[in-house]
Structures are given as structure tokens and as C-alpha cells.
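Incident log, support desk, overnight shift.

02:14 A customer reports that sequence design results differ from what the structure should imply. Their input is reproduced verbatim below. On-call engineer (initials T.W.) acknowledged and began investigating.
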């Protein structure tokens, strides 16, 4: 990828990044990487939650409680489904706070409820803890939208970024095989981790110096310890027939770019309606870096507009409304 293809604000971010420990995340170790991530979030200050109702709840599971954060737009919500969101972080980093700003932006733009899922992380809880939590949380959200969350939903969308996008697709496959309490409408996959078997041009071109590195990818997967051919990790290892309509976004400077492109093509070949977008000149993680890379807001807005189009075609003519508190 030529230097001219890098946006000015992306270039500035990468130059600053190269002088920080984040450039070699895998060398910090798990606790060091988590601590640094929290320091960076704390330095940004508290997010503006105006116009959004935010509540923390828990979903039960056979192995313990799963933390959830529910976001609702104040006032009259849009008709449509609710969104279960799975955060990125290589299955090792991230939590309800790490993607708080992104979830707020999603709710404000779409005026649909979002429920962020705090799934268990590796290496303390290696695969399949994350997909187990993701599926359990999605099924609980679908079954308890009204009673526990105060929402009357027409269906469910599974969304996520990076590792979270992998969990969204893995969970979608599970809900296609055994439906949840409300219909699965769509999946919204942001620069997804698709397959551990990579021999792609994007990994060669973008595997060093573009935030997510080849070494960091290997470190994340070594901690996650998922079998390379298992369909609950490798999205190319299962039949895509019957998967829900999909919005898939990649970034042109992302080492995962080509596997995201390939997955979009695989879905299309299986007859799944797909909207594909690429953030040209941008990097992995850009949707969570609006403050550092302001031009990413245009990529996010474009994705949200495409999502509205996808949902309007997929949604049955039923409304969703917030119920009055009991």
C-alpha cells in the first residue's frame, strides 16, 4: 500500500503511535496491555451520554453471570430490531467501557437499542468461553427484551468489531441452526477476524506499522487457543446458507482486510444479501478512534446509513417501542 493512500490524520496517528508502547502491544503481556488500554481511556475523560439512557444488567448462564450494558435513545425510538454488540480486542482485551463511545454513537445514529456484551476473555478463559458467552447472551437478550430490558423488539441484529465481529458471525450461525426467541434480522461486521489461515496480500502489506501488526495477531490467537478449523472460530469452516443479511466493513490498511473481503464474497456466493464497504486509507480499529482519527466519523456515518437501508429491507412491518416501567 503506497504512502499516498494513507489519510493525513491516519498518518499522524501512526507516527505518534510508533513512539508509544502500543506499537508493540504483544510485548507488554496481558496485564500490561490491559492496564495501558485503561490508562488511555481514562485520559480521554468521561463520555457524553446526553440523549441516551444507559443501564448495566446481567444475563445468567450455566457458568456465571454475563455483564451487559443496555443503551436506549431518549424519546421515540425508531421501529426495528435491537442490536447485541460484541466488542473487539483480540479475545484478550476490551470490556463494556472500551466500546462505550462506539455504542453511544450507534444508538444516536440509528435510534435502536444496543446491548453490549461483556464476554469472558482469554487467556484466563480461552476458547470456547467467548462464543459460549456470546450465544448465551444473545439468546437471553432475545428472550428477555421485554421483561428485563423494557423493550418490545421486532428482531435481533448481531454486531461487533474485529474479534467481536467474529463472535457475532459465530453466534449468527448458531441462531440460524437453532432460532432464538425473536427473529435474527442481520449481522453488522466491522473489520472482522475471519480465519486463522492467512496468506493474504493485506497481511504482507499491512502487517507492520498500521496499528494491528502480524505479531499482535499471532499473540492474540495464541492466548485465545481456538482450533483453527472449528466453525466457532473459523468463519470459512461452515456453510453460509441461511445466514442473515450482512453489512461488512473493512479498512484498506488493515492486515485483516483481505479475509474480510473473502468472507463477504463467501456470503454472496451462498445467496446472502450483503452490503460491503471499505474505509479507504484507514486502519483496523478506526471506528473506535474518532478522537485520534477524525475522518473515521465519515466511515462510521456511511456504515450507519447502509445499516439503515439493510434493516429497512429486512424488517417486518411491526414496531418496537419502549414499554412503561412497571
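02:41 Re-run completed on a clean worker. Output:
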Amino acid at each position: 500500500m503506497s504512502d499516498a493512500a494513507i489519510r493525513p490524520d491516519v498518518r499522524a496517528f501512526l507516527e505518534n503511535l510508533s513512539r508509544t508502547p502500543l506499537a508493540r502491544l504483544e510485548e507488554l503481556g496481558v496485564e500490561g496491555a490491559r492496564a495501558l488500554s485503561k490508562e488511555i481511556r481514562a485520559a480521554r475523560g468521561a463520555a457524553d451520554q446526553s440523549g441516551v439512557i444507559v443501564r448495566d444488567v446481567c444475563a445468567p448462564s450455566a457458568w456465571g453471570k454475563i455483564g451487559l450494558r443496555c443503551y436506549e435513545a431518549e424519546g421515540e425510538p425508531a421501529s426495528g430490531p435491537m442490536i447485541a454488540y460484541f466488542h473487539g480486542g483480540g479475545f484478550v482485551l476490551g470490556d463494556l467501557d472500551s466500546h462505550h463511545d462506539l455504542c453511544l454513537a450507534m444508538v444516536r445514529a440509528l435510534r435502536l437499542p444496543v446491548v453490549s456484551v461483556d464476554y469472558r476473555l482469554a487467556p484466563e478463559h480461552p476458547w470456547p468461553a467467548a462464543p459460549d458467552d456470546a450465544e448465551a447472551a444473545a439468546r437471553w437478550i432475545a428472550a428477555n427484551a421485554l421483561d428485563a430490558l423494557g423493550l418490545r423488539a421486532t428482531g435481533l441484529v448481531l454486531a461487533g468489531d474485529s474479534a467481536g465481529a467474529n463472535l457475532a458471525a459465530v453466534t449468527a450461525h448458531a441462531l440460524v441452526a437453532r432460532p432464538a426467541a425473536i427473529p435474527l434480522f442481520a449481522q453488522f461486521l466491522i473489520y472482522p477476524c475471519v480465519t486463522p489461515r492467512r496468506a493474504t496480500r493485506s497481511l504482507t502489506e499491512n502487517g507492520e506499522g498500521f496499528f494491528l501488526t502480524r505479531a499482535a495477531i499471532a499473540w492474540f490467537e495464541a492466548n485465545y487457543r481456538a482450533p483453527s478449523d472449528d466453525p466457532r472460530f473459523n468463519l470459512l469452516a461452515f456453510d453460509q446458507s441461511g445466514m442473515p443479511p450482512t453489512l461488512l466493513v473493512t479498512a484498506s490498511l488493515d492486515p485483516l482486510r483481505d479475509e474480510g473481503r473473502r468472507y463477504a464474497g463467501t456470503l454472496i456466493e451462498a445467496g446472502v444479501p450483503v452490503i460491503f464497504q471499505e474505509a479507504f486509507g484507514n486502519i483496523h480499529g478506526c471506528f473506535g478512534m474518532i478522537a485520534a482519527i477524525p475522518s473515521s466519523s465519515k466511515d462510521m456515518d456511511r456504515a450507519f446509513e447502509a445499516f439503515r437501508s439493510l434493516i429497512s429491507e429486512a424488517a417486518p412491518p411491526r414496531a418496537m417501542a419502549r414499554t412503561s416501567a412497571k
